[in-house]
Design goal:
Layout: E1 2-5, H1 10-21, E2 26-30, H2 38-47, E3 52-55, H3 61-70, E4 75-78, H4 85-90, H5 92-112, E5 117-123, H6 146-164, E6 169-175, E7 177-179, H7 198-206, E8 213-216, E9 228-229, E10 231-233, H8 234-249, E11 255-259, E12 265-266, H9 267-278, E13 284-287, H10 302-308, H11 316-329
Parallel strand pairs: 1-2, 1-4, 2-3, 4-5, 5-6, 6-11, 7-10, 8-13
Antiparallel strand pairs: 9-12
Helix pairs in contact: 1-2, 1-8, 3-5, 5-6, 7-9, 7-11, 9-11
This protein binds nicotinamide-adenine-dinucleotide.
Length: about 325
């Protein structure tokens, strides 16, 4: 059985489905700090299976102990973390406590139960503002905000743990910018409060839930002046986790890989693709750059292809179409 922490969140819910479709038995845990229990019923109808889920906090050792005592967990995919970059700067202690405290508690309980296969949700933000793109896994690590620091420090904790005990097997998956939703429109990204990422913001403007989109700067050194990122469809990303679990459970050694498409798209590219999908203009306004933003980065995903046999398949248009289906069928997210 595979334990998913943060299982009802955006990437967790899509990965849960893909693991079930691949034949894995899955136990999900989440404390709903940034997700809705309603994702569970949607996942049940999509998978046609009764889900195994326990509500709880990964910072709570007694909770995790009871989970491991009552389930034969062979591997863990650890999504549970706080992820709002801006909030991590205004309230860094909350981020260090949750993201590092949760990781350490989980690893201690895993060790006590002799479970040492671990897939970690890392992020491209460990690279900070990379010297060049495509970014390879051996690029310098220079996170620029407390959230990015929690991912960098988590990687460090895991690498030290591996050095102390070679029985640990860790997949460090560095995600680029996940967007889109499952093609059914039944599950998708539904952050609490105001979203931080481009895709849910565009979706909210498209549906009339927000007035207009802010484009942070059009004077970057990029082809159209707006920031360039490597957007990856969340279902492609989810399938990367299935490949990582297959890989670890087959006894292969730890690995660190970028999960991205290898193609950079600008903010304006995303707006235009979305406009094409919905057939009308998206209202936006160009404002000043945000401190801490970077002009451009995109992944070199070739190592993931070589080691996992995985590559992203879905186009930007499909990402926008699936995001729009989710948004238009669920204008208020899971509360619709
Ligand atoms: N979405 C992105 O752009 C992105 C990019 C790179 C890395 N990541 C990482 O991927 C992981 C999943 O991201 P997501 O986009 O699905 O975020 P999300 O907020 O939708 O999902 C995270 C889930 O973890 C849960 N959670 C948080 N703290 C918890 C705790 N202490 N105990 C139990 N549950 C807890 C939340 O309720 C939420 O359901 C995170 O670790 C995130 O940092 C995300």
């Amino acid at each position: 059985m595979i334990l998913l922490t943060g299982a009802t969140g955006y990437i967790g819910s899509h990965t849960w489905l893909e693991l079930l479709l691949a034949g894995y038995q899955v136990l999900g845990v989440d404390n709903f700090v940034n997700s809705s229990p309603k994702a569970l019923t949607r996942l049940e109808s999509l998978s046609g299976q009764k889900l195994e889920f326990i509500q709880g906090d990964v910072c709570d050792p007694a909770f995790l102990e009871s989970v491991f005592q009552s389930h034969p967990i062979k591997g863990v995919v650890h999504f549970a973390a706080l992820k709002a970059v801006g909030e991590s700067s205004s309230n860094p202690l909350r981020y260090y406590e949750n993201n590092l405290g949760g990781l350490i508690t989980l690893l201690q309980i895993m060790r006590a139960h002799d479970c040492r296969n671990f897939v970690f949700s890392s992020s491209a933000c460990v690279y900070g503002d990379p010297d060049e793109s495509p970014v390879k896994e051996d690029a310098a690590l220079r996170p620029e905000n407390p959230y990015g620091q929690t991912k960098f420090m988590s990687e460090q904790i895991l690498r030290d743990l591996e050095k102390s005990d070679p029985n640990w097997r860790v997949a460090y998956l560095r995600y680029f910018n996940p967007i889109g939703a499952h093609e059914s429109g039944l599950i998708g990204e539904d952050p609490m409060g105001v979203p931080n990422n481009l895709s849910p913001l565009v979706a909210r403007v498209a549906s009339g839930r927000m007035e207009e989109l802010k484009v942070y700067g059009n004077d970057w050194e990029t082809p159209d002046g707006t920031g360039v990122r490597d957007y990856i469809h969340v279902v492609d990303l989810a399938r990367g986790h299935v490949k990582a679990i297959d890989y670890l459970l087959s006894g292969k050694p730890s690995l660190t890989v970028n999960l991205g498409t290898g193609v950079g798209y600008s903010v304006m590219d995303v707006i235009r693709a979305y406009e094409e999908v919905i057939g009308r203009p998206i209202k936006y306004q160009v404002t000043a750059r945000r401190p801490g933003d970077v002009a451009l980065y995109y992944a070199d995903p070739s190592l993931a292809e070589a080691l996992l046999g995985w590559r992203a398949e879905r186009s930007l248009k499909q990402m926008c179409a699936d995001s729009w289906r989710w948004q238009s069928q669920n204008p208020m997210g899971y509360e619709s």
